[in-house]
Amino acid sequence: MDGFVITILLAVWNLLITIVIGLTAVVHKQYKERMKEQGDELARVTILINKTREEIARETATKAEVERVTDHIDQRFNRLETKIDQLIESHRRVL
């Protein structure tokens, strides 16, 4: 091969290498931007999940609160039952 053909082949080779490196840089930049967007979205969703957990914890009754209310209702029903029993007994005595 003469020098001219070798020079053209080297120029073509350099052009191909430059194109491959350029495309790799473009793809890498897009990938990097996409990963940043996904990281930002993940951070946003994490914040929303934490806020939701806080709201649920604030709005949901604890087991102790439910037991306290249930005990109070039971006591009220027991007193009501006692009063009804007394009322029935007093009516029986009258009859």
Written description of the protein model:
There is one protein chain. This protein is mostly helical. The chain folds into 2 domains: 1-60; 62-95. Helices cover 94% and strands 0% of the residues. The protein has 2 helices and no strands. The longest helix is centred in the first third of the chain and has 57 residues, at 3-59. The protein is rod-shaped, with a radius of gyration of 40 Å. The mean pLDDT is 92.
Write a brief structural summary:
The chain has helices at about 5-60, 65-95. It has about 100 residues and is mainly α. The protein starts with a helix and ends with a helix.
Beta-strand content: under 5%
Number of strands: 0
Report the radius of gyration as a whole number of Å: 40 Å
Span between termini? 133 Å
Contiguous helical run count: 2
What structural class results from the helix and strand content? mainly alpha
Sheet with most strands: none
- Helix residue percentage: over 70%
The number of distinct structural domains comes to 2
Gross geometry: rod-shaped
SSE string? HH
